[in-house]
Amino acid sequence: MDKAIEYKRNHRFQNWAGTFVCTAERFYQPHTLDELKSILADARAHKKQLRVVGCGHSPSDIAMTTDWMVNLDYLNNVIEVNHEKHEVTVEAGMRLFRLHEILDKEGWAMPNIGSISDQSVAGAIATATHGSSLKHKLISDQVRELTILLADGTERTCSEESDPELFKAACVSLGALGIIIRVKMHVVPAFDLEMTSTVMDFDKVIDLWNSDKLWNSAEYVRVWWFPYSSRCIVARQDRIQSNSKPRTATSVWSWLADSFWGYHAQQIFHYIGRIFPSWLPSFERFVFSRRYGWALGLESHRVDNSYDGMNMDCLYAQYVDEWSLPVPTGAEATIRLRNWLINHDTSPTTGIPDHDPRGIFIHSPIEIRVTKGDEDDAYLSTAYGHDTVYIGVIMYRPYHLPTSYHRYFSAYEGLIHSLGGRPHWAKQHGMGRKELEDKYPELGTWLSVRERVDPEGVFLGEYVRRHLVEEKDVRGVSVANGEAGRMYKVVNRVGDEE
Ligand SMILES: Cc1cc2nc3c(=O)[nH]c(=O)nc-3n(C[C@H](O)[C@H](O)[C@H](O)COP(=O)(O)OP(=O)(O)OC[C@H]3O[C@@H](n4cnc5c(N)ncnc54)[C@H](O)[C@@H]3O)c2cc1C
Fold first, then answer.
1. Nearest to 187, CA basis, from 91, 115, 113, 243
2. Is-contact 173 52, C-beta < 8 A?
3. Contacts of 416 (CB under 8 A, 6+ apart)
4. Ligand 1, closest atom to CA 71?
5. What is the pLDDT of residue 254?
6. What is the ipTM of this complex?
7. pLDDT per residue over 82-93, tens digit each?
8. Tell me: the pLDDT tens digits for 392-420?
9. Residues in domain FAD-binding PCMH-type (predicted)?
10. Quick check: CB of 16 below 6 Å from ligand 1?
11. Helix ranges restricted to H, 178-313
12. Ligand 1 atom at minimal distance to the Cα of residue 51
């Protein structure tokens, strides 16, 4: 059986940002379900862990292993488009960008997605990928039915009606329950998005947020915050009927703003900022004024199809950290972060008096987004129990070079943690089981479902073991501090400077 299915030996795998790398003893890309089942049986016979990897876009080590890795890029067919029930069923290796094109031709679309569409359907679901809308939940919420290949080789189909406990656990599974092989999802009639982007003063954004006039001001709302400019771009999008208005074409001006200033010039400035970090605030203000205009209230408008409108150019390699909070608490967190970063406020009210902001200069924007949430969500939904805001911090890696981020991310995590925040599963964080139990009321249920369907831990993976299973305090070995690789010998961070 070993020789029948091809695999790569000692396969070096790295995530999209190039921030984590591992060498998997075997790397498989099965072409059929039978092949996948054989690989699983073989892994069990060899007592190997099996990690499924999508397109490796998670900015943490969640998809990494030194044992066996399997990727479902060849199991990516559409199984059915059900026009009556507004549902599409696909094999789990389907990438979102391909799904959009297929659905578009049939007159359908996904109602909500994140900033990119490179992800595999199963990968996007597994880590609680979100977009930005208080009218919509996580992408996982679009799932109507899942079929999972369990560790014992059986296929199990679950939904809210059939085995709801497994379904709620598997809708955000972290890849640790089994191999998701088929997904049935809810779709909506294809639509376009009309967007208005406004240059807004930071304090005005906070006022709107606190008076409940920000996140409900359109169906999809995103905020990009530029702290040194004390300005935000507030992007509001509403649905319009597909092709009811001309879609916006790329103009010389938009190329200059987005491609020249937003990408190339910015990358050069980030490169220079590695040597002269205190110049970063001036660079931010300069690029902001060129890209968006400096005057408060300036607006720009555009119309796109739904997926181009929700996606954006995420530029180049980067370190990211993103946590979620209840929407009202998010405003307080944002103010505290501003006070710490810009005003160097280290009073106990910031929640991070032990973190010295002097000498810390950051990249922008800080991205702020929202998602609808309640107690019907998947057990590990980052929006479980309440409407949720996500605050994402970023340090780019110009030309794939390292930049300093440890002190910044560590302070940011301390602040959001002090307010009860939850880390995004796909992103690096330093939370252990004890802290996560406080943050996720259903973590115990998720762990017991996991134990039930995979008692030997074939799908456990080091990330899940480290953060969710072992009772150790992982703050001291935080991935954000770059120590997890040494501790667990699973991954080696690349490009760490500090
Ligand atoms: C540039 C960029 C932009 C992003 N934008 C957003 C955003 O807007 N919103 C957001 O929330 N996130 C965002 N992310 C994070 C991204 O959506 C998640 O990391 C997502 O999980 C990546 O999907 P993937 O296919 O690459 O999965 P991978 O990163 O390869 O794997 C992620 C997890 O999925 C599991 N998995 C994959 N396939 C299967 C399967 N068939 N069965 C079971 N488990 C499986 C893996 O084991 C792993 O645990 C972004 C990431 C990048 C790099």
1. 113
2. no
3. 323, 325, 333, 391
4. 38
5. 85
6. 0.99
7. 999 999 999 999
8. 999 999 999 999 999 999 999 999 999 99
9. 20-190
10. yes
11. 202-210, 252-254, 266-275, 280-292, 306-310
12. 47
pLDDT per position as a tens digit, 428-450: 899 999 999 999 999 999 999 99
Domain 191-429 CATH superfamily: FAD-linked oxidases, C-terminal domain (3.40.462.10)
Domain ranges, ordered by start, for the chain: 191-429
Nearest by Cα to 479 from 307, 396, 487? 487
Torsion of CA 120, 58, 165, 159, to 10 degrees: -20
Q: How far is CA 257 from CA 28, 159, 221, in A?
A: 42, 45, 21
Distance CA 238, CA 305 (A): 11
The encoded tokens of residue 262 equal 């937003």
Contact 109, 100 (CB under 8 A): yes
List b or e across 11-21, with b for residues whose CB sees 16 or more CB atoms inside 10 angstroms.
bebebbbbbbb
Say what the pLDDT of residue 476 is.
Answer: 46
Token pair 């800080």 in the structure block, residue: 366
Rounded CA-CA distance 496/428 in Å is 14
Q: How far is the CA of 449 from the centre of ligand 1 (A)?
A: 22
The Cα angle at residue 96 between residues 95 and 102, in degrees rounded to 5:
95
**CB 55, CB 36: distance < 8 Å:** no
* Cα(286) to centroid(ligand 1), Å: 33
Buried b (16+ CB within 10 A) or exposed e, 317-347: bbbbbbbbbbbebbbbbbbbbbbbbeeebbe
Return the residue whose CA atom lies nearest to atom 7 of ligand 1.
114
- Strand pairing category for 68-71 and 20-28: parallel
Query: CA–CA separation, 32 vs 2, rounded Å?
Result: 16
The answer to whether residue 226 scores a pLDDT higher than 70 is: yes
